[in-house]
Amino acid sequence: MNADEIDCRLIEKESWLAQVEWLAEVDSTNRFLANDPLSGRTLPALVGANAQTAGRGRGSNSWWSASGSLTFSIVFDPGQFSIPTSFLPRMSLSTGMAVRNAVARWLPESLVQVKWPNDVYVQGRKIAGLLIESHPANPNLLIVGIGLNVNNSLQSAPQQLQEKATSIIDVSGSEASRMDVLIQLLQDLEFEWKRIATASDFLDEYRNHCYLSGRNILVNDGVDEIGGLCEGVDAEGALLVRLPVGVQRVFAGTIEVIGE
User: Fold this and answer.
1) How does pLDDT run across 101-117, given as a tens digit for each residue?
2) Which of 50, 100, 205, 253 is the most exposed place for a label (fewest CB within 10 A)?
3) 235 forms bridges with which residues in the sheet?
4) What is the C-alpha separation between 15 and 1, in angstroms, rounded?
């Protein structure tokens, strides 16, 4: 098996997934599952693709995908992991930590951090992003989409991305098995999701790896823009921004780090 080959049956055998499908190309794995009535799927199910022509990020953002990346989406019932509805706002934090931990296993000598609300950074450059949505046909189900740069060197990316993003191969200098990375990531997702409502140290761990903490940032929610010092996240997953009038809690928006 070469470094980029994906064996769907082996993933099903070695993970908690009931069904895995891998496509040569798709516009977006999240959109693919959102348009799927799921009548023929056994959940939890994963759909991945070697290439995404219109990969989606948060809001109107897109995800650049090239040969060698891992791009996939999982549809599942949060109840499978005993996640109470009241803890669903933490899903983005929990999923980000799982991706962060999986990447750190492959790059143990690098600084790997989570950037609220949905990115993972290595040495100050983006290596992964995620998007969480409810399934249109069944709002009780979640679709978690993840894009991770593995063997897709950013040397082939558009010029504007080369200084802002990276990949496992760019940092380590060698290829990694996409299968091994994916299976490890699935194990980390299972671990983080199962403890989302019970782990007393979860928020402390997240804060220890928060890229934005201590940085001056601009937050744009599509209507207003605020700027201030990031003081981490609170128990509900809101970003805390210190303003002249006090601390403001932010639940959604695009983030720009001032001076970067």
Assistant:
1) 999 999 999 999 999 99
2) 205
3) none
4) 19
